[in-house]
UniProtKB/TrEMBL annotation:
Keyword Transmembrane helix assigned: no
Protein name according to UniProt: Lipid kinase
GO molecular function: ATP binding; kinase activity; metal ion binding
GO biological process: phospholipid biosynthetic process
Keywords, in A-Z order: ATP-binding, Kinase, Lipid biosynthesis, Lipid metabolism, Magnesium, Metal-binding, Nucleotide-binding, Phospholipid biosynthesis, Phospholipid metabolism, Transferase
GO cellular component, one term: plasma membrane
Cofactor: Mg(2+)
Claim: ATP-binding is one of the keywords in the record: yes
PANTHER family: LIPID KINASE YEGS (PTHR12358:SF106), SPHINGOSINE KINASE (PTHR12358)
Cited Pfam families: DAGK_cat, YegS_C
The organism of origin for this protein: Methylobrevis albus
Length: 302
């Protein structure tokens, strides 16, 4: 329900990353609409995790919600401070991929994102966790890590989704399978893989789907491993990755779990929500109903 003149005003800490791809585009109009809709705003500009943490801790006792304006990296930084608590999170999608917003049915237009926050419908979502670091969408190692290292902030801002394609082609020819040991349910499986992705949400990487039935509130992680012998076999599976149907290919291992550990013969970096956050050995867990998010009422979540 939208705020009315008689409804009590809420107070929000708004964290805006103006370095995000659309960080300055229409953001002031969006903030004006939030204020007109009954939310008093304490607005700060920040892109660094340490600064985000400082802002949230400073204002936590005085606010009713946090609103994050940025991409998935900004949202991930906010989640580190909000998970397990009662402060809900509103999203203003200003990034390149905006995969969490896409999962929740929040459209790229900021007017729609503002409407969602003003409507006030909160959903409790799961978070993934890798070595103590939480994530919304996907944590992975292999190809996607090299892609993240090659996709600079400047390229994302200049080229948008096309920047992903440019970086993807540049990295693809450099990839070689590597050996991992996947420990899950008391069983250890050895695999040679080009990439392993562990998904809490549905979308990642600018519109790829971790698994066609994946939901961010189902209490489980969806995992896939691309066990192709050669990098040049990967482009053929891209259409399936866009639909979350890669598990139908015989060279793709999939599983649904609550916890697993991945080890390798040498440390491999792990990417979570587009940021490199840790290295193997890496233990992945699902944290059920860990955070409240303003979301459209009709997205079909529990």
């Amino acid at each position: 329900m939208l705020m009315t003149a008689s409804a009590p005003r809420r107070k929000a800490l708004v964290i805006v990353n103006r370095r995000a791809r659309r960080g300055s585009e229409a953001i002031d109009d969006a903030l004006d609409r939030l204020d007109d809709g009954g939310i008093d705003l304490v607005a700060v500009e920040s892109a660094e995790p340490e600064a985000i943490a400082d802002h949230i801790e400073r204002h936590r006792a005085d606010i009713d919600l946090v609103i994050a304006g940025g991409g998935d990296g900004t949202l991930n930084g906010v989640a580190q401070l909000l998970h397990g608590g009662e402060l809900p999170l509103g999203i203003l999608p200003l990034g390149t991929a905006n995969d969490l917003a896409r999962t929740l049915g929040i459209r790229p237009e900021l007017d729609h994102a503002v409407d969602v926050i003003l409507a006030g419908h909160i959903r409790r979502l799961d978070l993934g966790e890798v070595n103590g670091r939480v994530f919304f969408n996907v944590a992975s190692l292999g190809y996607s890590v090299e892609l993240a290292k090659n996709l600079t902030s400047e390229a994302k801002k200049r080229w948008g989704a096309f920047g992903y394609a440019i970086a993807a082609m540049r990295v693809l020819g450099q990839m070689r399978p590597f050996t991992v040991f996947i420990e899950e349910g008391g069983v250890t499986r050895r695999a040679k893989t080009l990439q392993i992705a562990v998904g809490n949400g549905r979308f990642y990487g600018g519109g790829m789907v971790v698994e066609e039935s994946a939901r961010p509130d189902d209490g489980s992680l969806d995992v896939y491993s691309l066990e192709f012998e050669n990098w040049w076999q990967l482009p053929a599976i891209v259409p399936a990755l866009r639909r979350g149907q890669q598990g139908r290919h015989p060279a793709v291992r999939t599983l649904k779990t609550h916890e697993l550990t991945i080890r390798a013969r040498r440390p491999h970096q792990v990417n979570a929500d587009g940021e490199i956050v840790t290295v193997t050995p890496a233990t992945f867990k699902v944290v059920p109903k860990a955070i409240g998010i303003y979301a459209p009422l009709d997205i079909g979540l529990k």
